[in-house]
Amino acid sequence: MASVKSIGSLNFTFSMTLVRGSINFLESNKCCASLVSPQPRIKSRVAGKLFFLCTLGPLWLSRPMTKLTDGPRGGSGMLAVFCDLAEEDQADFRPWLIEDMFPARLDIGFNACASFDRVSGDGPEFVTLYEMPSLGHLYGEPYQALRRVRNPRDAAYHEKFQNPERHTYAWAGPELSSEAGGFAPYIYVDRFELADEDAQAFNIWFVGSYLPALSELEGLLRMRRYVSMEGAPKHFVLHEFADGVVFENSDWMIVREQFGDATSALYQRIIHAP
Quick one: average pLDDT of 200-212? Predict the structure, then answer.
Protein backbone atom coordinates (compact mmCIF):
# COMPACT_ATOMS: atom_id res chain seq x y z
CA MET A 1 0.00 0.00 0.00
CA ALA A 2 1.21 3.47 -0.75
CA SER A 3 2.59 5.05 2.39
CA VAL A 4 0.74 7.85 4.11
CA LYS A 5 3.19 10.47 5.36
CA SER A 6 2.64 12.33 8.60
CA ILE A 7 1.56 15.81 7.66
CA GLY A 8 1.26 17.47 11.03
CA SER A 9 -1.99 18.95 12.15
CA LEU A 10 -3.09 19.49 8.57
CA ASN A 11 -4.71 22.76 9.56
CA PHE A 12 -4.11 24.02 6.05
CA THR A 13 -4.21 27.66 5.11
CA PHE A 14 -3.32 29.27 1.86
CA SER A 15 -0.43 31.71 1.68
CA MET A 16 -1.17 35.39 1.34
CA THR A 17 0.42 35.22 -2.09
CA LEU A 18 -2.33 32.85 -3.22
CA VAL A 19 -4.99 34.99 -1.59
CA ARG A 20 -3.74 38.15 -3.27
CA GLY A 21 -3.46 36.30 -6.59
CA SER A 22 -7.04 35.01 -6.26
CA ILE A 23 -8.35 38.48 -5.44
CA ASN A 24 -6.51 39.96 -8.43
CA PHE A 25 -8.00 37.28 -10.65
CA LEU A 26 -11.50 37.99 -9.37
CA GLU A 27 -11.13 41.72 -9.84
CA SER A 28 -9.75 41.31 -13.34
CA ASN A 29 -12.78 39.18 -14.25
CA LYS A 30 -15.29 41.56 -12.61
CA CYS A 31 -16.19 38.94 -10.00
CA CYS A 32 -17.47 39.61 -6.53
CA ALA A 33 -14.85 38.92 -3.84
CA SER A 34 -15.31 38.89 -0.10
CA LEU A 35 -13.37 37.69 2.90
CA VAL A 36 -15.61 36.50 5.70
CA SER A 37 -14.29 36.02 9.25
CA PRO A 38 -13.71 33.68 11.03
CA GLN A 39 -13.85 31.23 8.10
CA PRO A 40 -12.98 33.52 5.16
CA ARG A 41 -13.87 32.41 1.69
CA ILE A 42 -13.23 34.05 -1.64
CA LYS A 43 -16.35 33.95 -3.76
CA SER A 44 -16.92 34.40 -7.46
CA ARG A 45 -20.07 34.39 -9.53
CA VAL A 46 -19.41 32.98 -12.96
CA ALA A 47 -22.25 32.32 -15.40
CA GLY A 48 -24.74 32.86 -12.59
CA LYS A 49 -23.31 30.09 -10.39
CA LEU A 50 -21.46 30.43 -7.11
CA PHE A 51 -17.91 29.09 -7.06
CA PHE A 52 -15.64 28.91 -4.05
CA LEU A 53 -12.15 29.69 -5.31
CA CYS A 54 -10.43 28.77 -2.09
CA THR A 55 -11.33 27.99 1.50
CA LEU A 56 -9.24 29.26 4.37
CA GLY A 57 -10.59 26.73 6.82
CA PRO A 58 -13.10 23.85 6.82
CA LEU A 59 -16.52 24.49 5.30
CA TRP A 60 -18.03 21.71 7.40
CA LEU A 61 -17.99 23.17 10.93
CA SER A 62 -20.03 20.27 12.30
CA ARG A 63 -19.16 16.62 11.89
CA PRO A 64 -22.33 14.66 11.11
CA MET A 65 -22.48 10.94 11.65
CA THR A 66 -22.24 8.82 8.55
CA LYS A 67 -24.82 6.19 7.71
CA LEU A 68 -24.54 3.06 5.62
CA THR A 69 -26.79 3.29 2.56
CA ASP A 70 -27.59 0.82 -0.20
CA GLY A 71 -27.94 3.56 -2.81
CA PRO A 72 -25.86 6.61 -3.68
CA ARG A 73 -26.78 9.75 -1.78
CA GLY A 74 -25.78 11.76 -4.84
CA GLY A 75 -25.36 10.51 -8.37
CA SER A 76 -24.13 7.10 -9.45
CA GLY A 77 -21.74 8.34 -12.14
CA MET A 78 -18.30 9.87 -11.71
CA LEU A 79 -15.66 11.27 -14.05
CA ALA A 80 -12.11 11.63 -12.70
CA VAL A 81 -9.34 13.38 -14.61
CA PHE A 82 -5.86 13.08 -13.13
CA CYS A 83 -2.94 15.06 -14.54
CA ASP A 84 0.32 16.86 -13.95
CA LEU A 85 1.05 20.33 -15.33
CA ALA A 86 4.17 22.29 -16.10
CA GLU A 87 4.70 25.13 -13.64
CA GLU A 88 4.00 27.77 -16.28
CA ASP A 89 0.63 26.18 -17.10
CA GLN A 90 -0.71 25.96 -13.55
CA ALA A 91 -1.80 29.59 -13.08
CA ASP A 92 -4.56 29.33 -15.70
CA PHE A 93 -5.70 25.84 -14.75
CA ARG A 94 -8.40 26.69 -12.20
CA PRO A 95 -9.66 29.84 -14.01
CA TRP A 96 -10.22 27.66 -17.08
CA LEU A 97 -12.15 25.14 -15.00
CA ILE A 98 -14.41 27.65 -13.25
CA GLU A 99 -15.04 29.76 -16.35
CA ASP A 100 -15.46 27.05 -18.98
CA MET A 101 -15.52 23.46 -17.80
CA PHE A 102 -17.65 23.58 -14.65
CA PRO A 103 -20.49 25.82 -15.93
CA ALA A 104 -20.85 23.85 -19.17
CA ARG A 105 -21.18 20.57 -17.30
CA LEU A 106 -23.53 21.86 -14.63
CA ASP A 107 -25.72 23.25 -17.41
CA ILE A 108 -26.23 19.74 -18.85
CA GLY A 109 -27.15 18.17 -15.53
CA PHE A 110 -23.97 17.30 -13.67
CA ASN A 111 -24.41 17.40 -9.88
CA ALA A 112 -21.07 18.71 -8.68
CA CYS A 113 -17.52 19.51 -9.81
CA ALA A 114 -14.31 19.98 -7.83
CA SER A 115 -10.58 20.18 -8.40
CA PHE A 116 -7.92 19.08 -5.92
CA ASP A 117 -4.17 19.34 -5.26
CA ARG A 118 -2.23 16.32 -4.01
CA VAL A 119 -0.96 16.76 -0.44
CA SER A 120 0.75 13.40 0.05
CA GLY A 121 0.88 9.93 -1.43
CA ASP A 122 1.30 8.60 -4.95
CA GLY A 123 -0.13 9.59 -8.31
CA PRO A 124 -0.60 12.76 -10.35
CA GLU A 125 -0.47 16.19 -8.73
CA PHE A 126 -4.00 17.23 -9.69
CA VAL A 127 -7.37 15.51 -9.89
CA THR A 128 -10.68 16.99 -11.03
CA LEU A 129 -13.89 15.13 -10.18
CA TYR A 130 -17.34 15.42 -11.70
CA GLU A 131 -20.42 13.76 -10.19
CA MET A 132 -23.49 13.16 -12.33
CA PRO A 133 -26.87 11.44 -11.77
CA SER A 134 -25.82 8.39 -13.76
CA LEU A 135 -23.04 7.21 -16.02
CA GLY A 136 -25.41 7.81 -18.93
CA HIS A 137 -24.68 11.54 -18.67
CA LEU A 138 -21.15 10.83 -19.90
CA TYR A 139 -22.35 9.03 -23.03
CA GLY A 140 -25.42 11.05 -23.98
CA GLU A 141 -25.44 13.65 -26.73
CA PRO A 142 -25.22 16.81 -24.54
CA TYR A 143 -21.88 15.78 -23.05
CA GLN A 144 -20.58 14.21 -26.24
CA ALA A 145 -21.30 17.49 -28.05
CA LEU A 146 -19.10 19.32 -25.54
CA ARG A 147 -16.25 16.94 -26.25
CA ARG A 148 -16.80 16.88 -30.00
CA VAL A 149 -16.80 20.64 -30.52
CA ARG A 150 -14.32 22.18 -28.10
CA ASN A 151 -13.74 25.91 -28.01
CA PRO A 152 -10.12 26.99 -28.71
CA ARG A 153 -9.29 27.57 -25.05
CA ASP A 154 -10.63 24.16 -24.08
CA ALA A 155 -8.77 22.36 -26.85
CA ALA A 156 -5.52 24.19 -26.11
CA TYR A 157 -5.60 23.47 -22.39
CA HIS A 158 -6.16 19.75 -22.82
CA GLU A 159 -2.91 19.67 -24.80
CA LYS A 160 -1.07 20.96 -21.73
CA PHE A 161 -1.96 17.96 -19.57
CA GLN A 162 1.01 15.79 -18.60
CA ASN A 163 0.52 12.14 -17.65
CA PRO A 164 -3.25 12.44 -18.10
CA GLU A 165 -5.53 9.72 -16.79
CA ARG A 166 -9.24 9.81 -17.55
CA HIS A 167 -11.66 7.47 -15.80
CA THR A 168 -15.41 7.02 -16.02
CA TYR A 169 -16.76 5.33 -12.90
CA ALA A 170 -19.98 3.55 -12.00
CA TRP A 171 -21.09 3.51 -8.36
CA ALA A 172 -20.70 0.21 -6.50
CA GLY A 173 -22.33 0.26 -3.08
CA PRO A 174 -22.85 0.33 -0.26
CA GLU A 175 -21.57 3.75 0.79
CA LEU A 176 -21.10 5.63 4.02
CA SER A 177 -22.52 9.13 3.83
CA SER A 178 -23.74 12.06 5.88
CA GLU A 179 -26.14 14.83 4.92
CA ALA A 180 -23.31 16.99 3.55
CA GLY A 181 -23.44 17.34 -0.23
CA GLY A 182 -20.89 18.09 -2.91
CA PHE A 183 -17.22 17.22 -2.51
CA ALA A 184 -15.56 17.52 0.90
CA PRO A 185 -12.49 19.70 1.69
CA TYR A 186 -10.19 16.65 1.76
CA ILE A 187 -10.35 13.39 -0.14
CA TYR A 188 -8.28 10.24 0.14
CA VAL A 189 -8.36 8.04 -2.95
CA ASP A 190 -7.39 4.42 -3.46
CA ARG A 191 -7.00 3.02 -6.97
CA PHE A 192 -6.23 -0.65 -7.40
CA GLU A 193 -6.70 -3.86 -9.32
CA LEU A 194 -8.31 -6.90 -7.72
CA ALA A 195 -7.61 -10.41 -8.97
CA ASP A 196 -10.64 -12.62 -9.51
CA GLU A 197 -9.45 -15.12 -6.94
CA ASP A 198 -9.14 -12.36 -4.33
CA ALA A 199 -12.38 -10.52 -5.04
CA GLN A 200 -14.69 -12.46 -2.73
CA ALA A 201 -12.41 -12.28 0.30
CA PHE A 202 -11.72 -8.58 -0.27
CA ASN A 203 -15.40 -7.71 -0.61
CA ILE A 204 -16.29 -9.66 2.54
CA TRP A 205 -13.60 -7.76 4.43
CA PHE A 206 -14.64 -4.45 2.88
CA VAL A 207 -18.30 -4.74 3.85
CA GLY A 208 -17.93 -6.67 7.11
CA SER A 209 -14.85 -5.06 8.63
CA TYR A 210 -13.69 -1.95 6.78
CA LEU A 211 -16.98 -0.06 6.55
CA PRO A 212 -17.86 -0.50 10.27
CA ALA A 213 -14.35 0.59 11.30
CA LEU A 214 -14.37 3.52 8.89
CA SER A 215 -17.70 4.77 10.22
CA GLU A 216 -16.04 5.38 13.61
CA LEU A 217 -13.33 7.69 12.25
CA GLU A 218 -13.63 11.33 13.33
CA GLY A 219 -14.22 13.73 10.49
CA LEU A 220 -15.40 11.20 7.87
CA LEU A 221 -18.17 12.69 5.74
CA ARG A 222 -18.52 10.09 3.02
CA MET A 223 -17.01 6.96 1.51
CA ARG A 224 -17.92 5.87 -2.01
CA ARG A 225 -16.72 2.97 -4.11
CA TYR A 226 -16.69 2.85 -7.91
CA VAL A 227 -15.78 0.49 -10.72
CA SER A 228 -14.08 1.94 -13.78
CA MET A 229 -15.84 1.68 -17.14
CA GLU A 230 -12.93 3.44 -18.87
CA GLY A 231 -9.40 3.62 -17.56
CA ALA A 232 -7.26 1.46 -15.29
CA PRO A 233 -6.98 0.46 -12.52
CA LYS A 234 -10.50 -0.86 -12.22
CA HIS A 235 -11.35 -0.07 -8.60
CA PHE A 236 -11.68 3.41 -7.10
CA VAL A 237 -12.51 4.18 -3.45
CA LEU A 238 -13.19 7.81 -2.54
CA HIS A 239 -13.00 8.84 1.12
CA GLU A 240 -14.12 12.37 2.02
CA PHE A 241 -13.16 14.19 5.20
CA ALA A 242 -13.85 17.51 6.88
CA ASP A 243 -10.13 17.90 7.64
CA GLY A 244 -6.87 15.96 7.64
CA VAL A 245 -6.60 15.16 11.35
CA VAL A 246 -7.62 11.53 10.81
CA PHE A 247 -4.34 10.80 9.07
CA GLU A 248 -2.48 11.24 12.36
CA ASN A 249 -4.60 8.43 13.81
CA SER A 250 -2.96 5.00 13.86
CA ASP A 251 -6.42 3.43 13.53
CA TRP A 252 -6.56 4.79 9.97
CA MET A 253 -3.56 2.66 8.97
CA ILE A 254 -4.72 -0.41 10.84
CA VAL A 255 -8.14 -0.60 9.18
CA ARG A 256 -6.58 -0.17 5.73
CA GLU A 257 -4.22 -3.14 5.80
CA GLN A 258 -6.08 -5.05 3.06
CA PHE A 259 -5.58 -2.38 0.38
CA GLY A 260 -2.19 -3.83 -0.46
CA ASP A 261 -0.61 -2.25 -3.53
CA ALA A 262 -3.20 0.46 -4.09
CA THR A 263 -2.13 3.80 -5.52
CA SER A 264 -3.24 6.00 -2.65
CA ALA A 265 -3.11 9.75 -2.08
CA LEU A 266 -4.52 12.57 0.00
CA TYR A 267 -5.85 15.60 -1.92
CA GLN A 268 -7.07 19.01 -0.78
CA ARG A 269 -9.97 20.72 -2.53
CA ILE A 270 -9.05 24.02 -4.21
CA ILE A 271 -12.23 24.90 -6.13
CA HIS A 272 -15.70 23.44 -6.41
CA ALA A 273 -19.12 24.10 -7.87
CA PRO A 274 -21.85 24.51 -6.89
Answer: 93
